[in-house]
Design brief:
alpha+beta, Aspartate Aminotransferase, domain 1, 4 helices
């Protein structure tokens, strides 16, 4: 797989759009980032996962997934080695990040709605 495959698969999910954050391509659903190509020059795609999801991916396929160094990685941001990933693995990982972002957006929207009602 490569950056164009990453882009094609990321944009195949319902509501996904390509944007740019700090000059690099990102992929959003409902305005929130679920994946980026910030590290494509190093051969990586980046996925926004939970720390638990990250641990599962790294444990199952350590030759393909690794935490992004630093604070982002501790929060679940994860590199995927594009050249080593099959289409099924890449699609599954992107789908996981996309689904997580949709779930977080729904939770955030519900919390905001309840906070507004209390006022």
């Amino acid at each position: 797989m490569n950056a164009e495959d990453f882009r094609r698969i990321a944009l195949s999910f319902e509501g996904a759009e390509e944007g740019s954050h700090m000059g690099v391509p990102d992929f959003r659903v409902r305005g929130r980032i679920f994946a980026t190509l910030a590290s494509q020059d190093q051969g990586y795609g980046n996925l926004m996962l939970t720390p638990e999801q990250q641990a599962d991916f790294v444990r199952e396929l350590p030759e393909i997934f690794l935490p992004i160094p630093g604070g982002w990685g501790r929060m679940g941001a994860t590199h995927i080695r594009l050249a080593q990933a099959s289409e099924d693995v890449l699609a599954g990982a992107l789908r996981t990040a996309w689904r997580l972002r949709i779930e977080k957006n729904t939770t955030t929207k519900t919390k905001k709605k309840h906070a507004t009602r209390r006022r």
